[in-house]
Amino acid sequence: MTRPLHLHPDRLFASDPAQRDIARALYRTVADLPIVSPHGHTDPHWFATDAPWRNATDLLLVPDHYVFRMLYSQGVPLDALGVPSRSGAPTTDPRAAWRTFAQHYHLFRATPSRLWLDHVFAEVMGLDVALEEATADLYYDHITARLAEPDYRPRALFDRFGIEVLATTEGAEADLSAHRAIRASGWGGRVITTYRPDGVIDVEHEQFAPAMARFAELTGEDVWSWRGYLAAHRKRRADFRAAGATATDHGHPSARTANLSAAEAEALFRRVTGGRPDAADADLFRAQMLTEMARMSVEDGMVMQLHPGSFRNHNEALFATYGRDKGADIPMRVDYVAALKPLLDAVGNERDFTLILFTLDESTYARELAPLAGHYPCLRLGPAWWFHDSPEGMRRYREMTTETAGFYNTVGFNDDTRAFLSIPARHDVARRVDCAFLARLVAEHRLEDWEAAELAQDLTVNLVRRAYRL
Amino acid sequence: MTRPLHLHPDRLFASDPAQRDIARALYRTVADLPIVSPHGHTDPHWFATDAPWRNATDLLLVPDHYVFRMLYSQGVPLDALGVPSRSGAPTTDPRAAWRTFAQHYHLFRATPSRLWLDHVFAEVMGLDVALEEATADLYYDHITARLAEPDYRPRALFDRFGIEVLATTEGAEADLSAHRAIRASGWGGRVITTYRPDGVIDVEHEQFAPAMARFAELTGEDVWSWRGYLAAHRKRRADFRAAGATATDHGHPSARTANLSAAEAEALFRRVTGGRPDAADADLFRAQMLTEMARMSVEDGMVMQLHPGSFRNHNEALFATYGRDKGADIPMRVDYVAALKPLLDAVGNERDFTLILFTLDESTYARELAPLAGHYPCLRLGPAWWFHDSPEGMRRYREMTTETAGFYNTVGFNDDTRAFLSIPARHDVARRVDCAFLARLVAEHRLEDWEAAELAQDLTVNLVRRAYRL
Amino acid sequence: MTRPLHLHPDRLFASDPAQRDIARALYRTVADLPIVSPHGHTDPHWFATDAPWRNATDLLLVPDHYVFRMLYSQGVPLDALGVPSRSGAPTTDPRAAWRTFAQHYHLFRATPSRLWLDHVFAEVMGLDVALEEATADLYYDHITARLAEPDYRPRALFDRFGIEVLATTEGAEADLSAHRAIRASGWGGRVITTYRPDGVIDVEHEQFAPAMARFAELTGEDVWSWRGYLAAHRKRRADFRAAGATATDHGHPSARTANLSAAEAEALFRRVTGGRPDAADADLFRAQMLTEMARMSVEDGMVMQLHPGSFRNHNEALFATYGRDKGADIPMRVDYVAALKPLLDAVGNERDFTLILFTLDESTYARELAPLAGHYPCLRLGPAWWFHDSPEGMRRYREMTTETAGFYNTVGFNDDTRAFLSIPARHDVARRVDCAFLARLVAEHRLEDWEAAELAQDLTVNLVRRAYRL
User: Fold this and answer.
1) What does the pLDDT read at residue B119?
2) Separation between Cα atoms, residue C38 and residue A152, nearest integer Å
3) What does the pLDDT read at residue A1?
4) Model pLDDT, residue A54
5) How far B314 CA sits from the closest chain A CA (Å)?
6) Residue C123 in contact with partner chain A when CB distance is under 8 A
7) In this structure, what are the phi and psi dihedrals at residue B184, rounded to the nearest 5 degrees?
8) Cβ separation C408–A3 shorter than 8 A
9) Interface mutation target, options A341, A375, A451, chain B, most CBs of B under 10 Å
10) Residue from the list C371, C377, C443 with its beta carbon closest to the beta carbon of A331
11) Which of B446, B451, B463 should be substituted to probe chain C, the one whose Cβ sees the most C Cβ atoms within 10 Å?
12) Which residues in chain B (365-394) have CB-CB distances under 8 A to chain C?
C-alpha cells in the first residue's frame, strides 16, 4: 500500500493560529510573483538547445550533490547512484540507481532536499504517491515519460515556472556560445550569465594553466603580463555584460582582501605565474584580485558577489577518484572584519558599488555581517546560503541579521542551484519562510500589517531586482 | 493620509495565548518599577545645567549612531543628517535633516531603533501619527516645541521616567565638575559616574598624551613613573567614588589579561610610555592593566566591567573625516577562556570582587561566558550588549546563558545609551522580553509561576542593585 | 508552609496546543522504552557490590559538579558542601551541607540540574514537597532513609529504571575487576565498559608515568617502545571487549589528528616518552594517537568517540587545592574541518568504521559537524553534550544539525553522567525534547505524522543500538 504525497498548503508556517493566519495572507500576495533568480548554476545549453532530459536519475539524482552526499554518508557508494568518476560514468543502470535512492528516501526527513524533491514530484511531475522502495519504478517511469513530452522541455518549464530572469555562472574562460545561441534563437526567456573568474585567479587550481590559455585566446591579451591580465579581465567583463551579465561572482577560501601598490601587485603577479607559486603568495594574489575586481565594478557597474569559506574537496580519496563537486566541500570558520578592510578602505564608501556577501559561518551573521552591512554603503547581505538554504537556516538568518542590518540591506533570495526543476520549490520555501518570519513580527506587534505586506513584496522581487540591477 | 502611531500593549510577547497571558501578568508587576541604569553614556551636564534641548534633530538624530549608521548604509551622506565632522557641524538645516530621516524611516522596520523611537514619539512626546515623509514637519515642530517646555527639561524627564539611579561614564582625565554641580544643586536625582580609564591605558589612542597630562594634573602624581601611574589611578578611583561611582568600565579590543611580575610590569610601562610603543607591547600593557584594575577593585570594592571585542573606527575614510563613534565600530570574534586566565588566576576566587563581562560575540554565550560565570565567584554576565540589545538578541542571551549560568549570575539590564529620551523605551523592551522568556518557561512547565514572579522582580531591579552595589 | 513538588505531565512540550497534542502522543510511545546508556561515568563497583549509598549529600550533592559549580559561583565554599579536596573530605556534616544546598536551590531555576533533581526527588524518591530551606531536613532524612532500603540499592534501581545497557568508562590502566565481578555475580544487568586511554596518551597528564606503569603491568608489553606501546593498546582493547566494551572514548583538548609515517611516529613517541616532552610534541602525539586508535577500530570494530574542546582545570588555585573535576572545566572554540582531515584521509571512507563526534562549541553544529557527518560514511554526531545537554541545548542541536546531516547520522542520547539516580530523568528530558521537536515539524507540515512516530522510536532506541553496536 502506497502513501499519499501531499504538499500541505500551510507548510512552513507557524502552528500558532494567529501567526498562521497572517502568514497565509502574506503568502497569498507573493506566491505567484515571478521568479527572479540572480545567482545559480543551471546549464545554459539546456535553454540553447531545448533538448529533452533523458530520465529521472540523470536529471534529479546524478547532478544533485545535496542528495548523493547524504546517501554516501550512510554507506551508499557513488557508483551505485550513477555518479560519474574521473574515468567517466559508471555502468550502473539508471533505474537501479533510482531504486537505491528511493529505498533510502527516509534519510532526507526534515531536510530541505526532501521539501524540494517532494515539490518537484507533486507540482512539476504531478505525482500523488510518496517516494519509497515500493514506488521507485512507478516514479522512474512516470518522470522519464514526462520528460519526453514537449511540456517538460527546458524552455517550456522555464515559462511554466514564471521565471523573469535566470542567471547562470560561467568562468572567465567560457565562450558564452550557449548564451549567444539563446539570444539568437528568438525565444523570449531571459537567461543571463555571471562572470566568475576564479579559474584564472586561483593559481592553485589544477586547471589554472589551461584556463589562462583560453583566457588569452578569447581576449587576445598577453595574460601572462600584469597589465595584459587586467586588460583581459576588463574585456571579458564587457563580453559577459554583452551576454546579459549584471554581476560577478567570487568563490574564495576566505574573505581576505589586499590592496597592494601597483608595483607590489605586479611583482606578486610575476611570482604566482612564474613556476610553482607558494601558498602564501597564491592566497595574497586571490586577496589582491578581489580588490582589483571591486575597482573594475566601480568602473563598469557590475555587482560583485563574494562566497567565501568552503574547504573544497575535503575528502582526498574521493577527490582522487571522482573529482570536484562530489559533496565533500565543508564550511570553515570565516572572518570578515579584518579580511575585508583593505577592499573597504579602497572602495567601501562608493555609493554606486555593490558587494554582496555570503557566508557558511552563521556565527558571523549578527557579529560581523549585519554590523558591516548596516554601515557600509556598498555592502549588502546575500541570503542564507548552501547548507543554510533551509527553513531553519533562513529563520536564523532573519533573526540574526534584521535587527542590525534591517531588511533593506538584504537582497532577496538566491536559489544557487543546478537543479533546474527545483527552482520553483526553492523560491516557494524562501517565500514561505519569509512570510512566516514577517507573520511572527506582526503577531508580536513588532511590525504593522501594512509594513509586512510591503516587505513581502520587497523580499520577493523588489530587493533582488534592485540589488542585481535587473 | 497619515497612519496612526500605536504602541500595542502586548508588543514583544509571544502570540501563543497561554504564553501571552502569563507574560502580560508578569509584565504588569514590573512595568512601573523604578529604572536602575548602572551603565550609560548620557551627558552629566544636562542634569547639572538643566538647560533645554534645542530641537528634534540635535536630540534624537545627530547623536544616535544606531540611526545614522543605518541611513549611511543606504547611501545617505552624514552631512545630510547634520552629523558633525572633525571640522565641525555641517551647515545642514536641522529640519531638512529630520525630513531626510523621516523619508527613510522604513529602513528601521523590525530594528530596536524603531521600537525605541516609536516609544519616545508616543510615550514621551505624545505623538499619535506615525513618522513618515508626510509627517516629518509635524514631528519636527511638535518635538521642538515640547523641548522648550519646562516638563521636557532633563531633570523633569529624569523624574518623570522614574529613574532611581543613572550612571554616566567619564574618563580618568575628567574633572567631574558636572557631577559636583549636580550634587551641589540640591536636586534629588541620583546621577553617578563610572571610572573608565581607557584613555590613559590605551597607549595607541591618539589622545593618550593629553589624557596623561590631565591625569597628572588632576592627581599631582608623576604619572610617567609606574609607581606614580598606579597611585594616580588609586586617587582618581577615590575621586570617582566620591562622585558616586560604584563601578569601573573597560572597553578593550580583546579580553586579554596578563599578570606580569612587578619588575616586568614596570619595564613594560617604561617601554610603552617612552617613545613609540610597538603594537605587541601596547596590547600587553592593556592586558596587564586589566589585572591591575582588578586588584584595585579587590582593594576598594569597585565593580569592574569589561566590554571587549569591538574593532573601532573600521572605516578609514570616515574616521579621517568624521572621527570616532560614527557607527563604524564592528564586532570581532573574541576569546575569553585563555584571555581571562591570568586575571582569574590572580583574583578569580575573591568573593568580594565582581567582574561583569559583556560580549559582542554571541558564540561565546553558551560556550565560554555561561560556563565561566557558572563557576567563578567573581564573574557575572552583563546583559545582551550594543547590537544585541534587541528583542532577538536578548532572547538568544537568555536561551544561551540561563541553563549553565542560571539567572543569578546575570546583572539585569544596562541601557548603555547616550539617548536619554530612549531610556524608558529600552528598559521597557528589556522587561517585556524577559517577561516573555519567563512566560515561555512557565507555559512549558519548566518554572513555577511564583518563581517567575520572583524572577521578574530580580531581573528588573534586584540583580542590578546587588551586582553594582547600588 | 511548603510548596508542592509536581512534575507536570506536559513539561518541555510547546505551549501551542497543536504542537503539544502531537508531542504528547509521540511521547506516550517512547516514555517507557528501555534506557540505552552507551556513554557514562557511573562507578561499576556500585553494581559489583550492590552496597547501599549512605546519604543524600554523598549521593546527590558531593559528586555532582553541575550542582556544586553553580553554588561555588555564588560564593558557597566547596568545603561547606562536603566536596573533598586533595587532602581528603572536609569535616562538614553532610546534613549541614544539604541545608546549604537547599537554601540555594533557587539558583538552579531553569537549569537542567533542576529538572533532573526534581525528577529524582519526585519519581525516584517519592517526595511531594519542593526543596527549599524549610524542607532541607525532611529531604535529607527521607532520602537517607530510602537509601537504606533494599529497593534503593544500585541493582534494584538499575532494574526499576528499565536500563537495557549501561556503559561505564575506564582508563587503559584499569583492572576491570568490578566488571568481572558483575559478570561473575549472576546478576542479569548489562553493565559494560568503554576504553578510554587518555591517561596513557596524554603525556602532559600528571598521572602519565604511573598510568604507563600499570599499562605495562597489565599487558606484559614493553610500553616504552613504540611497537610495545601499540601492542599494549591492542591487548587492552581486547580486554575491554571481553568486559563488554563496544566503544572507545577520547577526551582531547582539540580535535587535532595527524597521520605521520611509521618512522616519524616512532621518533615522536621516543621524544615524548624520553624526559620532559615539549607542548608541541605532546599535542602532536595526541593527534597521532587518534589516527592510531581509528586504525585499530577499523581492525577490531570498536566504535570510536571523540570529545574535544574542554579547557580542563581552568581555575589554578582550585585545582591546586581540590584537584580535577571540580566544575572548572571550560569549553573552548574548536575546529574540526582541518583538524580531522589527516584521520579522515586515512580511514574516512571505511564503511565499517564509526567515529562519533561531540562538541562543546555549538557554532560548529551547522558549520562543520553536520556537513562532515552528512558526507563521510564513518562519521556520526553525538548528542548535545555536557553544558548543552539541556532543553535549549538539545533544541539548538536538532535545529542546527538535522537539515544537513539528517536524523540518521545522529546516535540517540548519551546521559554521560556519574549521577546514577538522574539517568531516567536525563533520558526523559531528551525524549521529551525530541518529541517536542518532531511535533513542531509535524505541526508545520514538514514531516508526516507516521514519520515522526518512526523517528521517535529511532531517536530513542534504534539509532543508539545501531551506532554503538549494542
Assistant:
1) 98
2) 51
3) 74
4) 94
5) 7
6) no
7) -70, -20
8) no
9) A375
10) C371
11) B446
12) 366-368, 370-377, 379
Residue spans per domain, chain C: 17-50+153-467, 52-152
Residues in A 13-42 with any Cβ partner in B closer than 8 A: 16, 18-19
Query: What confidence category does residue B332 fall into, taking pLDDT thresholds of 50, 70 and 90?
Result: very high
Tell me which H or E stretch contains B163.
strand B163-167
B1 pLDDT exceeds 80? Answer: no
- Tell whether A357 lies on the interface with B, counting CB pairs under 8 A: no
Q: Are B445 and C333 an interchain contact pair (Cβ–Cβ within 8 Å)?
A: no
User: How close A375 comes to chain B (CA, Å)?
Assistant: 4
Q: What is the ipTM of this complex?
A: 0.97
Arch. (CATH architecture) of B52-152: Orthogonal Bundle (1.10)
**Considering the domain C17-50+153-467, what is its CATH architecture?**
Alpha-Beta Barrel (3.20)
Section B124-148 average pLDDT: 98
- Closest partner residue to B110 (CB to CB) among A344, A402, A450 is A402
Nearest CA in chain A to B365: A363
Task: Return the H-helix or E-strand segment holding C237.
Answer: helix C226-242
Per-residue pLDDT at C276: 82
List the subunits that have 3+ CB pairs under 8 angstroms with C. A, B
pTM for this model (two decimals): 0.98
For B20-37, what is each residue's pLDDT tens digit?
Answer: 999 999 999 999 999 999
Contact B285/B277 with Cβ under 8 angstroms? yes
- Lowest-pLDDT range, A36-40, A88-92, B329-333, B454-458? A88-92
Residue B372 has pLDDT above 80, yes or no: yes
Q: Is B17-50+153-467's fold the same as B52-152's?
A: no
Suggest the residue from B2, B330, B335, B389 to mutate for an interface test with chain A (most A CBs closer than 10 A). B330
Residue C104 · residue C71 · CB < 8 Å: yes
b or e along B392-429 (b: 16 or more beta carbons within 10 Å of the residue's beta carbon)? bbbbbbbbbbbbbbbbbbbbbbbbbbbbbbbbbbbbbb
Interface of A with B in 267-296 (CB under 8 A): none
